[in-house]
Design brief:
This is LRR-RLK. Keywords: Leucine-rich repeat, Repeat. It is a single chain. By secondary structure, the chain is low in regular secondary structure. The chain has a domain at 245-340: Alpha-Beta Horseshoe (Leucine-rich repeat, LRR (right-handed beta-alpha superhelix)), CATH 3.80.10. The chain has helices at residues 2-11, 26-29, 178-181, 320-324, 327-336; strands at 13-15, 49-51, 72-74, 95-97, 118-120, 141-143, 165-167, 189-191, 213-215, 237-239, 260-262, 283-285, 307-309. It has a 13-stranded parallel sheet. The longest helix has 10 residues, at 2-11.
Length: 341
C-alpha cells in the first residue's frame, strides 16, 4: 500500500482495485500531506485518477473534497449505499463510475461537478436521477441501467452534448422520453430495453435521427404506435427481441447502414424478400420465432453476413445437416435456390 501511494504521488494515478478494502485508507484523502522521507515534496503531484473498484468499501467520506484535482474516480463494484455531497466539489472530475453498488440516491450536489463527461450509476437501487444533472453541460455518456428509475428529469434536456450514449436498460420507465430526446438530437446510442415502455409515438424517432444503436428489446407495447424507423437513416444496430412482432416492420428494410439486426424471441412467421436490400448486414438474429420458410433471396447477403441465427424455428425448407454447418452453408443453399432469370 505504501509503495502504491508513493508511486501515486509521482504519477497522479492510484489503482487499489481488488484489494478487499473495507474502507478508503485515510492516507488517500490526504495524499500530499503524507510525503515521506526521501521524497521531494516539490515534485509530488496531486491525485488525478483514483480506481477503487472491486472492493468492499461501504463509505466514501466528505474528505473526498481534499482531492480537488481528481479527473477520474471509479468506485464500481463495492458496497456503497450513498455518495458524499463533496462529490460536487470535484470541479475537474470528468469520469465517475459508481456502478454495481447499493446506492439509493445520487446527491443533487453532483450538478456542481460541472466538468463531468461520463457518469455510470448502473446496477444500483436508484429511483430517480437528480435534476441537477442538467447542469453537467459537458455530459456525453450517461449509463443508468438496472435501477428502479421511472422517468428522466426534465433538466436533462439541457445536456446537449449527450451525444455518445444514454443507457437506461432494465428500469421502470413507462413513457417514451420524447421531450428530452428532442434536445439530444446528436445522440448515437439509446438503450431502453426491458422497461415497461408504453407505445412510442409514430414520430418518436424523428428527434434522434442520428442514432446508430437502438435497443427496445423486452418492451412488448412499445411498437404498437408504429414508430417510423425510416427516421433513423444512420442506424447500424437495432435490437428488437421480445417485442411481440408478428411481422417485420417494412421500414426496417430501408435502413441501408444496418449491420446488426436482432429480431429473436418474437412471433415472426415469415421473412420478407426485401431483406436482400440490407447489404451492410453482418449479423441477423431470427432465433425463437415461428419461421418455417426462408426466402432464397436471403442468400444474396452471403458476402456480408457473418452470423445468421435461426435456432428455435420450425424450419421445413432447409435440412438439418445444412443448418448444422452454419451461416455460410445456409446462405449458399438459399442462394442456389434463387430461380434463374
Amino acid at each position: 500500500m505504501d509503495r502504491a501511494l508513493k508511486a501515486a504521488r509521482t504519477s497522479g494515478s492510484l489503482n487499489l482495485s481488488n484489494r478487499s478494502l473495507r474502507d478508503v485508507p485515510d492516507e488517500i484523502y490526504r495524499s500530499l500531506d503524507a510525503v515521506g522521507e526521501g521524497e521531494k515534496w516539490w515534485e509530488a503531484v496531486e491525485l488525478q485518477k483514483l480506481i477503487l473498484a472491486h472492493n468492499n468499501i461501504e463509505l466514501l467520506k466528505e474528505d473526498l473534497r481534499n482531492l480537488p484535482q481528481l479527473v477520474v474516480l471509479n468506485v464500481s463494484n463495492n458496497k456503497l449505499t450513498a455518495l458524499p455531497a463533496a462529490i460536487g466539489e470535484l470541479s475537474l472530475l470528468k469520469s465517475l463510475d459508481v456502478s454495481c453498488n447499493m446506492i439509493q440516491q445520487i446527491p443533487e450536489e453532483i450538478g456542481s461537478a460541472a466538468s463531468l463527461v461520463k457518469f455510470d450509476c448502473s446496477s444500483n437501487q436508484i429511483k430517480e436521477l437528480p435534476s441537477s444533472l442538467g447542469r453537467c453541460l459537458d455530459l456525453s455518456e450517461l449509463k443508468a441501467s438496472n435501477n428502479f428509475i421511472t422517468s428522466l428529469p426534465e433538466d436533462l434536456a439541457r445536456c446537449s452534448k449527450l451525444t455518445k450514449s444514454l443507457i437506461l436498460s432494465r428500469n421502470k420507465i413507462q413513457e417514451w422520453p420524447g421531450p428530452i430526446l428532442k434536445s439530444l438530437n446528436n445522440l448515437s446510442c439509446l438503450k431502453l430495453d426491458n422497461n415497461p415502455l408504453r407505445q412510442i409515438p409514430s414520430d418518436g424517432f424523428q428527434a434522434v435521427s442520428m442514432l446508430q444503436i437502438l435497443d427496445l428489446s423486452g418492451n412488448p407495447a412499445s411498437l404498437c404506435g408504429h414508430p417510423a424507423f425510416s427516421s433513423l437513416p444512420h442506424l447500424q444496430e437495432l435490437y428488437l427481441r421480445r417485442v411481440q412482432l408478428h411481422e417485420v416492420p417494412s421500414e426496417i428494410l430501408s435502413l441501408q447502414q444496418l449491420r446488426i439486426l436482432d429480431l429473436s424471441q418474437n412471433s415472426l412467421q415469415s421473412i420478407p424478400e426485401g431483406f436482400k436490400n440490407l447489404t451492410s448486414l453482418t449479423e441477423l438474429g431470427l432465433s425463437d420465432n415461428n419461421i418455417s420458410v426462408l426466402p432464397p433471396e436471403l442468400g444474396l447477403l452471403e458476402p456480408t453476413i457473418q452470423a445468421l441465427r435461426l435456432d428455435g424455428n420450425p424450419l421445413r425448407s432447409i435440412r438439418r445437416p445444412i443448418l448444422d454447418r452454419g451461416t455460410k452453408a445456409v446462405l449458399k443453399y438459399l442462394k442456389d435456390k434463387i430461380p434463374e432469370q
